[in-house]
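Bumping my old thread because nobody answered last time. Still need a sequence for this structure:
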């Protein structure tokens, strides 16, 4: 479903965060607590993935199916810089640790942006991303 082309992009990590650039995105790690991360990925998607025809919702549902142990908290349609997006919040086990995630998928033409905020369950304080 997704191909992994290389994208050109610039990174400007905020203070107290370290960035690790990958071919299709970047991982930001909080220096004061390396278990807290923000992952941003860029993927090329088929042109048929249209949020108005259920495409983005279908993709999100496919992602959810892969998270068998997840406890989903909420889901909502949002806009990020005028682009349609879906964000959902959930708890699940990752590398034998219970983590809290806020996942956002944004479609912009042929690109799908995924923004994932990860923190151990006990360190999550109900923060929301500020998009």
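Sorry it took so long. Here it is:
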């Amino acid at each position: 479903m997704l191909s992994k082309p290389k994208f050109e992009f610039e990174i400007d990590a905020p203070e107290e965060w370290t960035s690790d650039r990958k071919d299709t995105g970047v991982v930001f790690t909080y220096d004061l607590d390396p278990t807290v991360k923000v992952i941003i990925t860029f993927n090329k998607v088929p042109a048929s993935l249209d949020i108005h025809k259920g495409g983005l919702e279908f993709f999100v549902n496919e992602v959810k199916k892969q998270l068998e142990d997840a406890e989903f908290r909420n889901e909502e349609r949002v806009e990020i810089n005028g682009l349609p997006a879906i964000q959902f919040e959930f708890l699940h086990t990752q590398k034998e640790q219970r983590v809290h995630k806020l996942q956002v998928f944004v479609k912009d033409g042929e690109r799908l942006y995924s923004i994932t905020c990860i923190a151990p369950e006990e360190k999550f304080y109900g923060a929301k991303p500020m998009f």
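The first strand starts at residue 17 and ends at 22. Let me know if any region looks off to you.
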